[in-house]
Every structure is written in structure tokens, then in C-alpha cells.
Amino acid sequence: MKIRILCVAGARPNFMKLAPLVAALDRDPDFLPFIVHTGQHYDDQMSGQFFRDLGMPAPKCNLNVGSGSQAQQTAEIMKRFEPVVLEERPDAVLVVGDVNSTMACALVGKKLQIRVIHVEAGLRSFDREMPEEINRVVTDAVSDLLLVTEESGCRNLMAEGVPPDRVFLVGNLMIDSLRAHMNSAKESDVLSRLGLKSRAYGLVTLHRPSNVDQPGHLAEIMETLAIIADELPLYLPIHPRTRARLGEHKITVHPHIVLTEPLGYFDFLWLMSNSSAVLTDSGGIQEETTALGIPCLTLRDNTERPATIEEGTNILAGTRKASILDAWRQLQQNPKRGRIPKYWDGGASARCVEVLRTYFASGGAAR
Ligand code: UD1
What we know:
By secondary structure, this protein is α/β, with parallel strands linked by helices. The chain is 47% helix and 15% strand. The chain has 16 helices and 13 strands.
């Protein structure tokens, strides 16, 4: 009998983590993975396009939860996920990352006494104003098996009293995807489409509620980016949340900041690989820039991914005009070089499969 793993896909950053793992499980005769999509992200640009680019199998079902407040979205996912788990009775529910779908499905699985596996466990920003930090803490608290991307994650889980035999450093699945798809990314025509020359532009992404939901914060960040854009043209593939807020608050965008629609995976990888710097508030992009050796300014006051700073090319730039410009000047004078953190080598999915095999072979005890 194959071990049936229900893999939860919810929002854009989940897809590049799940793709290599689902493929590796699928190739293995011991496992039968299948995807349930919560529908947290639903636009083709935010979801379908990534399934195609990453070559992912179609979800077995889609819960179509859509958008809502934190509580509405989380509750809706839980309500719609429970009957699916009851019907499927998988051997485990596997969740990745830190989005609302991750936490909601982990809670449902655990309460139905199904084993819960969390991939990207243990990351902590220690900032409970971030919805993702609550999702990380709650998901880890109910997970039976905790697979970790960087050493800080193991230390955080030990400090929280998680039994060490449930915690495994497996590396970074997102970097598995990056390495697997770099050749396809090279085929992208995104540079010619946007009229860009390699290393002659900066790439920006912005979507954290703390940066975009308050008009004062968003206006200050856009004003700061305008100063930078006078030195280096900036490209900003715009998240739907940010586009909506710019419109609602009538914030004008400097002409050297070019807004584009959200890009597909290959286009974005190629745009990032050829940029001279990235400014972002995303979690995953901090990791991808470290893997690519591209300088990254993180527009936040903290990060749950300290390896990108201690070892990689990432600099915490804060969210205020003075601190961002300081970090920008620092970057111009002394571009940060980095090294690749342990196990960010394209082999994370193989390590996950081996941990799962050993876990189930020994009976797959719950916590
Ligand atoms: C979510 C995650 C965040 C992740 C981000 C990546 C949580 C708490 N947040 O934030 O960790 O970094 O995804 O994008 O889970 N919308 C669309 N089309 C879509 C999806 C969303 O237009 O396909 C719009 C809706 O107006 C929605 C807004 O974007 O209200 C925000 O979407 P939501 O899923 O609530 O959160 P994100 O900001 O995307």
C-alpha cells in the first residue's frame, strides 16, 4: 500500500516549494502524493500560470475559498478542507510555508488525528504583528514532523521544546525549483519585451500588509523608491493587493518606476537573475537572491530567514526613507557578497522523501 500524502497548495509562494517535492514523491513507488488547492490565490497570474510553468499535476480538488479578512479566509479554508480530509483519509497532510492555507489545513488535519508534516518549519521573525508569524507558530505547534530550510529554524524549534527527533534540516525546496527551471528561465523573452539590458535595472516587489495597507507607509516607500529610480530604473511587477492600495490612496508612481502585471515564474526568475539589485518585502525572494548571488535590500524591520543576512546577499533596509536610502548607499559603495546556506543545493526534495520514508517505516508516530 502506498503512503498517501495530501499536499496543500494555497498561495503563490507555496507552488515553487511543492512542485519539486510532489514530483519526487510521485517518482517514488512508496508514495502517492496528491494536491488539494485551497483557492487562496485564484487568478491565473497568481496560481494557474505557476502550475503550468512548474509542470505541477492538477489539484485533485480546489476549495475555491478566495479572498477575505484573516479570520474569514482561515475559517472558510477550515470549513471546506475538513470534508475533503474526511473523505480522503490520507496518511498525512503536508503543508508548506506560512500562508493562511498552511495554518488552516494543519489545524484541520491534526484535529482529525491525521499526521501533519510542515515543510519550512521553525522560521521565526519574532514579530507577531505579521499574520505569517502567527501561522508559523501555530502550524509548528500542531505538526508531527518538522522539515527545516535553515539552521535557525532548528534552533528556534529546540528553544520551543519540540522533540529533536521530529526536526530535520532538509534544505530549501524553493532553491530546488530555481535550479530545476533556470534553463527554461533563460528562454524567457522578458528582457526584450520590457526593453531592458542585463544589470541596468533594479527589481522591486512589495505586498506586505504592513508596507502597503497604510497609506502613509506606502507613500513613503514609493517616494523613497522614486529617489532610487532616478539613479537606477526600477521594475515592479505589482501584486494585486498593492495595485489596489495605490489606486485607493491615489499614490502617484514616479515615471522611472515601471509597473508590470504579476509575472510568471520563468519571467520573474530571469528578470531577477539579470537585475543589479532587488528591493523586496517577500520572504522567498530573500532566499532566491541569496541563491543567485544578487544583492537584496529587504524592506522590513526583521526577517524570519536570517541565513540570507548572515550568509547570503540580503541586507535589512527597514521601511523608512532614511534607513532604505542608507542601505541603498551602502550597497552602492560595497556590494554584499555571500555564500549559499547549507543544503540550498537542489537536493532538498530528495532529502524530504528520505525523511518521510524513515518516519513512516518506523510507524509514523504522532506528537
Ligand atoms: C498571501 C500570504 C503572504 C504571501 C502572499 C504572496 C497570508 C496571510 N498571506 O498574501 O504570506 O507572501 O500571499 O502573494 O496567507 N488577490 C487577487 N488575486 C488572487 C489573490 C489575491 O486579486 O489570486 C487580491 C485580493 O484583492 C486579496 C488580496 O489580493 O484581497 C490579498 O490576497 P491574500 O491572499 O489575502 O493575501 P496576500 O497579500 O496575497
